[in-house]
């Protein structure tokens, strides 16, 4: 009769420990452990370069393709903001430009405002006419997939592990518990088999 207590307890413990270790082996050990010909290393650290390359490729082709970025940057409100920023930047430079310093501040500010309006108008015109093509030219020089890949590959994996646990901690804990529950069920089935047929 003790089978019905012992087997489920053992099965539950084995199932829980197995799932707990499987989750830990996602990230650990960070560096390879060599035991003769056998090499033990966490799945993610061992495949980090492949993982980083795959995520970079997904970001560049699926999440942020060039056409989508170009369309977003070429939107009228973005063009307007860029033109205004260009005008304000030039105006600030004009006010403090050494050649104009001898002139009264009010005159310098009036000149700066006029320059800002001109720059704003011209930048808007250029972006309206050549914006999408210009954005495409700029984006074609940027390898977004490689940038993401390099960032992920250089990431501190303790930090990455902390992020995974903060986002999916409850789900990972549930996987551990389900290992214990399934192990206990297997143990119970074994106890029934031993009791009735052993």
Please render the helix and strand layout as text.
Elements: H1 3-24, E1 33-35, E2 38-40, H2 43-46, H3 48-63, H4 66-73, H5 76-95, H6 105-140, H7 144-154, H8 157-197
Antiparallel strand pairs: 1-2
Helix pairs in contact: 1-8, 3-7, 4-6, 5-6
Mean pLDDT over the residues: 86
Low-confidence stretches: none
Secondary-structure element series: HEEHHHHHHH
Biggest β-sheet: count, sense, barrel? 2 strands, antiparallel
Strand order of the largest sheet: 1-2
Q: Calculate Rg over CA atoms.
A: 31 Å
Number of domains: 1
Instruction: Please give the share of residues in helix.
Output: over 70%
- Could you tell me how far the N terminus lies from the C terminus, measured between alpha carbons in angstroms? 12 Å
Number of strands: 2
Which strand-content bin applies to the residues?
Answer: under 5%
- Which class of secondary structure composition applies to the elements? mainly alpha
**What oligomeric arrangement do these chains adopt?**
single chain
Categorize the overall geometry. rod-shaped
Q: Give the helix tally.
A: 8
